[in-house]
Predict the 3D structure of the following.
Amino acid sequence: MARLAQLALSEDELDAFTSQLAAVLDHAADLEALNVDDIEPSTHPFPLKNVLRVDEPDEGFEIEEVLEGAPEVEEHQFRVPPILGDS
Amino acid sequence: MEATEIAEKVSSGEISARTVVEQHIEIINEIESDVNAFNLVTAEKALIDADEIDSKIASGETLGPLAGVPISIKDNLCTRGIETTCSSKILEGWKPPYDATVIEKLKEAGAVIIGKTNLDEFAMGSSTENSAFGPTRNPHNLECVPGGSSGGSAAAVAAGFSPLALGSDTGGSIRQPAALCGVVGVKPTYGRVSRYGLVAFASSLDQVGPFANTVSDAALTLEVISGHDPRDSTSIPEKPLDISGFLDQGVEGMRIGVIEELSGKGLGGISQDVISRVEDAIKVLSNAGADVEPASVPASIYGLSAYYVIAPAEASSNLARYDGIRFGPRTEAATTAETMTATRTKGFGDEVKRRIMLGTYALSAGYYDAYYGKSQRVRTLIMNDFAKAYEKFDLLISPTAPTTAFPLGDKTADPMQMYLQDVCTIPSNLAGHPAMSVPFGFGADGMPVGIQILAPAMAEREMFQAAKILESESGNGIE
């Protein structure tokens, strides 16, 4: 799970988290007794259809403003370490 | 001074906005080092803003309903050019390039932002102890937590740092700290207030709302921040709320149900202090002419379990964006993938990691139906049970939190014990309904107790009418 979530955990952390998460899942086990097969799932409080705005050009952010919060920038782009192969 | 009074006096020129802001900064300077309500106090900027309001008044301009009123903002609401950290190391130093819609609306109304308040990291927690900035303490007793996750905002109002604050409520994060700090806290109907610029935790549950010392101040603030926003696709296409003019209409003839499953009779773990205050509230509402009877929302007891699957599932997806590439600090590693992992491992605290893993698990192939699918169906069940209860009742009440404020460190070792703090507040988030906490006296430990008023979707006005009745008989007053 930690790997899927892009987190690196030590053995000790893994042990602690595993038992804590098991306690939460144990609590959720009370749902098992419920028969809800005939009930529709809700993803949201209210039924929503696609909400679209009018198709008109709108002002966006300046590139500089958006890049200001980034850790590393080069020529108006986010700079990242190598994606493939060795650095 | 109440917000309504400040706005009146500032607008009429009786007192300057600068004086008001200076008075509040003075209180902050005196006791903030004990309380730690703020991640950042924006005193300098607040004084500049106050001067601007004063010069507008001098030139005869009419100002909004919150003219010169200091307000504290939970640090998960984006403020243009002002650090917004969510109390997480992963957003250390990040300054948003835009204001949240609620911030724009507050500024238009003349409010003055006085600081960004502490929270449990990414709003995940019920005590404001999971913060990279250290815990906030309860102004009523510094050894106790203020509740959470909007503990900084609740404490700021209780300590007199500002008469108003904004928080966000995903499972009780406005109402529970309001109860523990003895202030009013409101979670509006889902979609009533724009989420644009609120850093997402669980998008189908998150809602922004106000804290205040009085019901009428909370009503005024909610009016200012409510209304349709085309930048939030889940925003309800309605005009801003109109509550203030109806606050004194009382509860005569209203049918009010006491949720049995959440009021101590059905649920273990509710303290005697809280149970007896709920009984007092029932008397007050009955004396005011309401017809108060026991009500049943059977599926509400499954709220906690469903919530701790749904909220982490949404969070695991929402928090995938924190990868050290586009914003916040980066922990360098050899490759991009390793950089992402290193940044997230270093940047997130334990509770956030727990919930991301829980959500990742609940959404993974093979477990999706058993956990996430089932919880979504239980969510429908809870909505159906509320709908049935509201055929018989106009409003429902319950405790806001099972206990009064507990000592720091009391529940940090056992996440499940912490999660139980939200057992009474979570059902409203799952249903999308409005609910609020009104301070209603104190427990034997001298700490505040809050009563929760729940209403059907869009029925904020009736909810506030009942809140006003409870406030008038709560014996709390303003310090």
Summary: Chain B touches chain A through 72 residues (CB under 8 Å).
